[in-house]
Design the sequence.
């Protein structure tokens, strides 16, 4: 087994004792195949049990361990040491208040998530006895990509707009709204649009695309937001066409929900 | 201490906890529901399940066939009334999840697709590519946001149940953000806190799988059932223990030893099925216990490959082709590539068996009720038992749904029927005592013991003595070692004295839970002098239905004593114990 030694420079902050965040450097003996999280776990187990951070699955699906690694938002369980030099700087995700050390406060996202109604909305529920909704593979394909979000918050840490205006609903929540809008079983787009197309919704996005670049699950929130802008613009024009426009809009949405 | 009053408290917000919460909100909108979790719901380990969820839906399938696959797969240790109920309700629950938006993979006609799974005679595993658990969890979590009655306490770590006059009346928890104790006074508590696979060093389980809820119930006097039955999943990545779903074999992947030979045919699971044409319930689609045991025998024969992370065999998917791998198994392709540097499209993937699931758990009846009034349990932390001595892959995700809902309905009925009310003063006294016990952890003098050190010794003794194959000597040594570790844990100090997000104290408590549970695993295994399902004894190699067609029941006897082991009859309704036949020849 090949070993190497790295220097981990980790941001520390304990609100009870520290006036400001500071950096602590740990020298960590590592295996070549380790990820940054393994090195942080080594620190916790062998050097400093007071270091606080979140992690669980170690396979890039629970979304707990997002951190800034050398200034980039990454999942520390999928940041391989082989891709870094001897010195690695680890900080909590940007744009979020620090709770302690590498733990950030997630209240803002958890409050925004229910506002976009990320669940199937229907006028009438189909009884269970009538079985499943039919959904063809191409209909599944329409939204599948946007259902892959693990809520790791890397996109919020990367989004310059969220950094400037924390009222912005932000990439992950908007992509999730889009996921349900595009689901053939759903009839809730109008309700969601009241939130997503309003102030602090999709129009806040300046299409830098940083969210899609850092997304570890290739969700492409930036693409979702642009599609939503287009759909919202269409709606705006159709509404202004009077009766004809309303009929077109009705037929467009009934096409999606006729199953 | 902050006090929260609620009708029902649920501990754990994974698949079972979220399903229970939604069922409570739907049963009675007037109920107050408090859902506690030591992590945010979407971090729960349900997210790591890959392969799928079993439920009879296709015309070529039958409830009877799912029943007999499950009971035989469990080596007849399942309670058959529970299995029957489970199988009857499974299709409804999976369909409900479909209505809630779960992105199940589809047939070309738009109906839900099913894939083959180990030990199942008919294709009946619903799947969402190879991220089924992830999609189930997020569908449930997102759907739960519809219900304002569900009050979540995220990142609140439950430490103890509050028991007053023989009834559960709530729980105590540490709010991670502030470090303050909270008492949640409740008329009923549902534990959905998951398994404790983290007591082993090499596991698919995430860091949070430390069995806290099981330990809580155990210390409160509820027996833990069938704890000796620990499932090894046959295909984990070496080094990390990352799971490569059974769906790999369901889609046609095969296992090969160092000579490229498909060795399962030598262990009662032959004859060899044609490459790319998997035959149900034989060879690579045999049950997990048999496959993991076959690995062990290959290792003894020297037929494994040596890697720096231990002995391995190969999982070969190359013949599936890139298109099918990308459609059905994109996540595991990425995992193997990233964490083992192997592209399964072009190369065979080294794998080895890895601790995955605990069949045993908190003793409940078919209504998800424990013997302790007011306490219910569902999911991996519970043992109903539908899984017996060996769970079939894809039954557990469905179990979360069926029994999560059932626990909720039972809790509602209990509250209504018993007219129970919380004795606030008595509950407060209990909670105050718990708070004092937690505070005392901080006052322990700093000694030589460390959490990581004790944990490593627990790993070594569990892997060495209570692994795939066990015997009297190994288990005796392991039980003795665990008794010693439990004593040493009493002197383990919390070095980090701060209040906010103190994971040091959390890890001390989690280790305490795991040591208690590990002792029930080893003690139950030592007493079961037979081989059945996942429990294999080198010194008692046969199944012994005369003596051990029974559930083992481990009861807590304090901090310094090992558990008392007792037995409970298995419920048999229509399937008498028989031979588990996974040879393809006879079918």
Sequence:
């Amino acid at each position: 087994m090949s070993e190497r030694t790295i220097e981990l420079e980790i941001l520390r902050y304990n609100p009870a004792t520290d006036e400001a965040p500071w950096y602590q450097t740990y020298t960590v003996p590592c295996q070549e195949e380790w990820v940054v999280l393994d090195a942080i776990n080594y620190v916790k187990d062998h050097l400093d049990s007071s270091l606080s951070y979140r992690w669980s699955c170690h396979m890039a699906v629970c979304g707990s361990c997002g951190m800034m690694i050398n200034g980039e938002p990454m999942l520390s369980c999928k940041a391989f040491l082989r891709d870094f030099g001897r010195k690695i700087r680890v900080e909590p995700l940007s744009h979020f208040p620090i709770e302690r050390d590498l733990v950030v406060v997630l209240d803002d996202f958890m409050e925004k998530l229910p506002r976009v109604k990320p669940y199937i909305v229907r006028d009438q529920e189909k009884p269970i006895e009538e079985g499943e909704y039919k959904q063809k593979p191409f209909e599944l394909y329409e939204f599948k990509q946007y259902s892959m979000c693990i809520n790791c918050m890397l996109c919020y840490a990367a989004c310059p707009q969220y950094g400037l205006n924390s009222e912005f609903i932000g990439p992950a929540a908007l992509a999730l709204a889009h996921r349900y809008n595009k689901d053939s079983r759903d009839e809730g787009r109008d309700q969601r649009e009241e939130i997503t197309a309003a102030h602090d919704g999709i129009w806040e996005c300046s299409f830098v695309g940083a969210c899609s670049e850092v997304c570890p699950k290739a969700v492409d929130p930036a693409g979702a937001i642009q599609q939503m802008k287009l759909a919202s613009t269409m709606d705006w024009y159709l509404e202004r066409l009077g009766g004809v426009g309303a009929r077109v809009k009705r037929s467009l949405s009934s096409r999606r929900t006729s199953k | 201490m902050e006090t929260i009053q609620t009708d029902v408290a649920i501990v754990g917000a994974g698949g079972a906890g979220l399903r229970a919460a939604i069922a409570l909100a739907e049963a009675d909108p007037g109920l107050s529901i408090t859902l506690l979790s030591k992590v945010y719901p979407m971090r729960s380990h349900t997210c790591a399940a890959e392969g799928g969820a079993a439920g009879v839906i296709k015309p070529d399938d039958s409830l009877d066939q799912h029943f007999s696959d499950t009971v035989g797969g469990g080596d007849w240790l399942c309670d058959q009334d529970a299995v029957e109920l489970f199988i009857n309700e499974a299709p409804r629950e999976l369909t409900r999840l479909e209505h809630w938006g779960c992105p199940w993979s589809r047939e070309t006609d738009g109906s839900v697709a099913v894939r083959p799974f180990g030990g199942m005679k008919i294709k009946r595993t619903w799947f969402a590519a190879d991220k089924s658990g992830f999609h189930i969890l997020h569908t449930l979590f997102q759907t739960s946001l519809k219900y304002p009655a569900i009050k979540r306490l995220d990142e609140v770590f439950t430490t103890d149940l509050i028991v007053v006059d023989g009834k559960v009346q709530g729980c105590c928890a540490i709010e991670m953000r502030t470090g303050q104790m909270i008492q949640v006074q409740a008329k009923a508590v549902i534990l959905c806190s998951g398994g404790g696979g983290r007591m082993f060093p090499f596991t698919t389980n995430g860091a949070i799988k430390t069995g806290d809820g099981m330990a809580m119930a155990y210390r409160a006097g509820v027996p833990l059932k069938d704890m000796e039955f620990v499932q090894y999943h046959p295909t984990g990545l070496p080094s990390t223990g990352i799971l490569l779903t059974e769906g790999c074999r369901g889609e046609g992947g095969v296992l090969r030893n160092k000579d490229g030979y498909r060795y399962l045919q030598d262990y009662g699971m032959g004859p060899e099925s044609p490459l790319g044409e998997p035959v149900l319930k034989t060879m690579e689609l045999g049950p997990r216990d048999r496959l993991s045991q076959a690995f062990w025998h290959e290792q003894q024969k020297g037929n494994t490959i040596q890697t720096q992370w231990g002995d391995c065999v190969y999982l070969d998917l190359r013949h599936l082709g890139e298109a099918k791998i990308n459609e059905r198994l994109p996540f595991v392709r990425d995992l193997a590539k990233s964490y083992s540097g192997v592209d399964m499209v072009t190369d065979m993937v080294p794998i080895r068996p890895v601790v995955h699931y605990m069949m045993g758990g908190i003793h409940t009846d078919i209504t998800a009720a424990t013997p302790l009034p007011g306490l219910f349990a569902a999911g991996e932390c519970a043992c109903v038992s539908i899984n017996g001595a060996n769970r079939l892959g894809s039954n557990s995700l469905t179990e979360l749904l069926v029994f999560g809902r059932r626990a909720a309905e039972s809790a509602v009925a209990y509250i209504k029927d018993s007219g129970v009310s919380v004795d606030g003063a008595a509950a407060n006294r209990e909670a105050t005592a718990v708070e004092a016990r937690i505070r005392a952890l901080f006052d322990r003098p700093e000694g030589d013991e460390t959490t990581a050190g004790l944990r490593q010794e627990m790993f070594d003794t569990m892997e060495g003595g209570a692994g795939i194959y066990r015997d009297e000597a190994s288990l005796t040594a392991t039980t003795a070692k665990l008794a010693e570790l439990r004593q040493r844990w009493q002197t383990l100090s919390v070095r980090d004295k701060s209040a906010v997000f103190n994971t040091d104290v959390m890890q001390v408590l989690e280790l305490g839970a795991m040591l208690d549970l590990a002792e029930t695993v080893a003690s139950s295994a030592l007493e079961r002098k037979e081989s059945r399902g996942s429990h294999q004894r080198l010194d008692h190699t046969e199944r012994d239905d005369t003596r051990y067609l029974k559930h083992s029941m481990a009861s807590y006897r304090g901090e310094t004593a090992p558990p008392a082991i007792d037995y409970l009859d298995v419920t048999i309704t229509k399937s008498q114990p028989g031979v588990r036949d996974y040879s393809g020849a006879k079918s």
